[in-house]
Automatic annotation (TrEMBL):
Keywords: Ribonucleoprotein, Ribosomal protein. GO terms for biological process: translation. This is Ribosomal protein L34e. GO terms for molecular function: structural constituent of ribosome. Belongs to the eukaryotic ribosomal protein eL34 family. It comes from the Eukaryota. One of its GO terms (cellular component) is ribonucleoprotein complex. InterPro entries: Ribosomal_eL34 (IPR008195), Ribosomal_eL34_C_sf (IPR038562), Ribosomal_eL34_CS (IPR018065).
Length: 88
């Protein structure tokens, strides 16, 4: 019979923020491993297309990377795509 598992955190519902997968520990026990939510990345404020050159991270992780990685060297670098800047 398979080993039963319980969540390790207080949230006990199968929600988007509570995604888990089963792993086997070095001691041979099965346990849950919590997965982070996938990041969408920044999009252009005008046309909505994905901004190239900027990594797709969760919001809190942008605080840990440098300013150079959060924008491209252009006017409206981190919020508008090159085509929309050209139109402006």
């Amino acid at each position: 019979m398979a080993q039963r598992l319980t969540y390790r955190r207080r949230l006990s519902y199968n929600t988007k923020s509570n995604r888990v997968r089963v792993i086997k520990t070095p001691g041979g026990k099965l346990t849950w491993l919590y997965e982070k939510k996938p990041a969408k990345g920044p999009h252009c404020g005008d046309c909505g297309s994905r901004l190239p050159g900027i990594p797709a991270l969760r919001p809190r992780q942008y605080a840990r990377i440098s300013k150079r990685q959060k924008k491209v060297q252009r006017a409206y670098g981190g919020s508008r795509c090159a085509g929309c800047v050209r139109d402006r």
